[in-house]
Amino acid sequence: MIPVAPAPEPASFDAVVRRPGRTWLTKHKTGKLKPYWASCLDELWLRYHGVCAYLATHFERVTGAASVEHFVAKSSARQLAYEWSNYRLASRDVNGRKSDFDDVLDPFELEPDTFRLVLVLGQIVVNPSLRGSRRQRAADTIERLGLDRPLAREMRARHFEELHAGRRLPHDSPFVWAEMQRQAAPSRRRRRA
Asked: Where are the domains of the chain?
């Protein structure tokens, strides 16, 4: 997981999602929300270049793996259900794991270098220099989202091998790429010395 810069909302968002959603909310104070946000999934995918905000890896839209993740859960803040600023592009699996929980770090507010990778293993770990509640929140995020489960490790290890061999592009797996660059930096400095 790496920091994600919030993308501007599409010009059509207000007319297609926000206004119809707010109108619906005024008429329905309770019950299941009408999923107007689904209308903006293609734009969300485009604006975030198809990269899951939590796994920090690209996925193709055609796979149907994309979902609109409401960072602040719809169950706790119905008024934010139709707000672009509350949306994160997420794989369906990660979205399902986050669900209504609020113990996950927000990719929009994530500090750089919060997480590290053991590249050859694909293992994600909390930066050892973090302390206290920041460290605990990072560990909770890994656990809640299953970021270090075997399939996720396998994916990142494979991405590392493919990036290293030039068979994958940096934007396909930006977290793995960033960690490759960070971890290579000390060896480049030693060579120059």
From this structure: 13-184
Please give the backbone phi and psi of residue 124, each rounded to the nearest 5 degrees, phi first.
-100, 135
Question: What tens digit of pLDDT does each residue of 91-128 get?
Answer: 999 999 998 888 999 999 999 999 999 999 999 999 99
pTM: 0.89
E strands present in 10-121: 66-70, 87-91, 115-118
150-164 helix and 174-192 helix, angle to the nearest 10 degrees: 50
Dihedral (C-alpha) 143, 169, 190, 183: value to the nearest 10 degrees? 0
Q: What radius of gyration do the chain's Cα atoms show?
A: 18
On the CB side of 159, how many CA atoms lie within 13 Å of its CA? Answer: 28
Q: How big is the CA angle at 155 (ends 121 and 119), to the nearest 5 degrees?
A: 30
